[in-house]
Amino acid sequence: MFTKQIPLFRLFGFSVKIDLSWIVIAVLVTWSLAVGLFPQFFEGFSTATYWYMGIAGAVGLFASIVVHEFAHSLVARQHGMEMRGITLFIFGGVAEMPDEPTDPKTEFLVAIIGPITSIAIAGIAYGITFVGRGAGWPEQITAVTWYLALINGLLAAFNMLPAFPLDGGRVLRSILWKFQGSLRRATRITSQIGSGFGFALIGLGLLSVLYGNLIGGIWWFLLGMFLRGAAQMSYQQLLIRRMLEGEKVSDVMRPNVETVPSAVSLHDFVEEYVYKHHFKMFPVVDDGHLRGCITTRQVKEVPREQWGQRTVGEVAQSCDADNTIGPTTDAAKALAKMNSSQASRLLVAEGDRLVGIISLKDLMGLISRRLELEEE
Fold this sequence. Notes:
Blueprint: E1 5-11, E2 14-19, H1 21-41, H2 47-78, E3 85-89, E4 92-96, H3 104-135, H4 139-159, H5 167-180, H6 183-210, H7 214-244, H8 249-252, H9 266-277, E5 281-286, E6 289-295, H10 296-300, H11 312-315, E7 324-325, H12 331-341, E8 345-350, E9 353-359, H13 360-375
Parallel strand pairs: 2-3, 7-8
Antiparallel strand pairs: 1-2, 3-4, 5-6, 8-9
Helix pairs in contact: 1-2, 2-3, 2-4, 3-4, 3-5, 5-6, 6-7
């Protein structure tokens, strides 16, 4: 879903990051407010003033989305769910939850708090607008607060559409889960609804383009594509988690691991290990103890003329939580870690003892076999 992410700040233990795609929407929102909305409804200001108002409105929208996602994150953490942080991207923001809720009640509470928060922000912004107009505040200020009241109300309404993975779709999923007793079935139904809404938005976008609204039509089309793709991906991710449920890393890993002694030169490492086995990462082991990991990227950072003199032990880095995992860990968590760290293999270790290695290929093989059995 995301491209390059830039960390912004941490609050309440959550990291807030911005995806580069957010810059696109920030510029478009500012431009549309400064050139379109504010001049249309509030006349008589200079061009510079409209741009200041546009920037203020965009910053207010940014803050509103962050508060909305923080509400999701705080409620989720209160109910024992792991939260990785919040990422703002081109279509808004998302609270990154690696696991599904454990029960329908948790799903309902985590989902519903988002629209409630947006409605509360809209109410506060409207109240400030009402008080400001009565007190004679400059219209430039009340225009921005009016916009924030309007946009948060619209965000709450849109998010409550019963289309997964929107908040309304998650609320509907929690209700279906409660009465049908199956998270998988509830996710399938709400994902199909979400995909249907996506098709409807795509159609609306095409109609808008045909009737001359090019910019609006493109955005409706892209939003529909995103909603449809996110709905399908959410169901696929749930299926994958269910396929890996109950499996430990030790059940899937390969115990026979190709290791590299720390005394091997970089030249011999490339010739005898990388070119022979075609892996990008190798564990460095001496006398049965895991000393670290070496990757082809680390070797590439060393000038080629030094490969004969430098050793693996000099270049290797210590293994960390991003590239190692315990043998008793759930296999689904191994897959989640590979996704978050963009790694295709994880070392399986107990303390400083290497017991195996697990790869994305191993996990996909298990999922494939289980899917074949279920189809039969």
